[in-house]
Amino acid sequence: MQVNYKVEEVKSKKSKVGDAMIPVTMIVLTLSGIAVIALISYFFGVEQGKLQKTPLISFQNNPSSSSPTPTQIPPQTITPSGTKNKTSPTPSPIPKTAIITSDKNLDGFVSSNNYVNNQSEIRSGRNKFLLSRGFLSFDLSKLPKYTKIVSATLRVYQVKAIGNPYSVETGNLKIDHLIYGETLDETDYNANALSSGFTDLSKNRITGWKEVEVLNQLVEDLGSGHKTAQFRIHFEKEEKGTTDSGDYVYFESADNSEGTTNIPQLLVKFY
Q1: Contact at 8 Å (CB) between 265 and 205?
Q2: Is the separation of the CB atoms in 106 and 227 below 8 Å?
Q3: Residue 152 bridge partners (DSSP)
Q4: Alpha carbons 140 and 219: distance in angstroms, whole number
């Protein structure tokens, strides 16, 4: 009887151990199930992300292969309906240039003794007997009608200087704007100017082109319906000199009397 008691005690102990292992086994199985579910969710999420990032694929028949070849379709950019395409700005128009040369019948010089010369150089200056003034005329009918004038430049070529022009006694060479008509005669020496001495044409005896802006004068002529733009040149101070040869400046005329071919020009830029 004593032996049987011990055996039952041992069995009882084993039973207790087995009973204790049941909850442990359930916990392990529960944790394993959670881990499996987590792994499935992870891989499913990864695969779903790949599917979202994978571009659309279309299949085209390949004559050389029995299986279709996948072709990627590039993503398209959709422009919102309210967006307008930008247009490049319209380029500014480029002005044209007209070069009007002086009228050889109306340029030259007139002296205070009523001497008129329209077949040689344009001369301005003095000697001990007289004073001389130069004249220039440009035909405005050579300009296109209904033009917008941007600039106008008078250009004359100073060929040479005799004596001592541009001195303290003579000053600079001035220019008048006037209308002396269809002929050059002795009355033009003292004809009234539209604007007298409005700027300096030249300040020195250096040979070369002398230029002056005459936009306002040209606009006035066109606005008044004048057929010509005409100018008179003279020194700032006009008193007779002390020598026979005098103090003069010579400019090339439309006759090309000095042989330079640099005849007077009126450069007009317009639209």
Answers
A1: no
A2: no
A3: 268
A4: 11
**Tens-digit pLDDT profile for residues 40-90:** 555 555 445 444 444 444 444 554 445 555 555 555 655 555 555 567 777
pTM of the complete model: 0.68
Which residue in the block uniquely carries the two structure tokens 């090309």? Answer: 256
The structure tokens listed for 16 are 């207790």
Give the model confidence (pLDDT) of 247-264 as tens digits: 999 999 999 999 999 999
Which tokens hold the place of 89?
């700005």
Task: Determine what percent of the chain is predicted with pLDDT higher than 90.
Answer: 62
CA angle 5, 6, 11 (to 5 degrees): 100
Residue range of the domain that includes 150: 96-270
pLDDT of res. 91 = 79
Q: Specify whether 250 is located in the same domain as 127.
A: yes
Residues 6+ apart with CB under 8 A from 175: 154, 197, 198, 199, 200, 201, 212, 231, 232, 233
Residue type, 188: D
Domain harbouring 251, CATH code: 2.60.120
Which residue in 125, 156, 161 sits closest to 236, CA to CA?
125
Local structure of 27: helix, strand or coil: helix
The amino acid at residue 81 is S
The residues pairing with 210 across neighbouring beta strands, listed in sequence order, are 156
Please check whether residue 212 lies inside any domain of the structure.
yes
- What residues form DSSP beta bridges with 61? none
CA atoms within 13 A on the CB side of 186: 4
Please answer whether residues 109 and 117 qualify as being in contact, where contact means their C-beta atoms are separated by less than 8 angstroms: yes
